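2024-03-11 09:14:02 DEBUG pipeline.ingest accepted 1 chain
2024-03-11 09:14:02 DEBUG pipeline.ingest length=154
2024-03-11 09:14:03 DEBUG pipeline.predict start
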Amino acid sequence: MQSIPFKPQVSIIDTMSTTADLVAVLKKRTQSGSDDLCRPGHGAGPGRIQRQLKLAKTFRWRPHGPVMDYFRDNALLDYFSGGFNGSGEGLLLVHGAISRGLAPSFMERMQRVAQDFAQQHQADQKLADKDREGYTLLLAMRSWEFEAFAALRR
């Protein structure tokens, strides 16, 4: 999976005092053809602007980058506060000690799952909104020990 640099338009967003200001800037950028960050979202219509950030579905966060930091600070607890018990939902946590040489092959398999999910998303764009449901697939793997357990280690 290729890492795609994320360059937020902080200078534009920082100058916005209201949502209306931001909508006006996005509308102007769209009309001038200079909107290379966003594309019209589903449900956009006359007098209504709905935007989606234009990123590859396989977008990869820079470690400790602005998107990762934003997710940690603003969305992580909200995401994990769900029960993961709805239809098509689940939460798995597996811990194990494996060889360091084998870890990259697990990452490749996770990347394939992410790519499959992204391809299914693209294929289902032809369906009506009422026939689709938004899901977020979060895959992560790292060498880690819970800090509370590490403190108990002799």
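2024-03-11 09:14:41 DEBUG pipeline.report The mean pLDDT is 77.
2024-03-11 09:14:41 DEBUG pipeline.predict end
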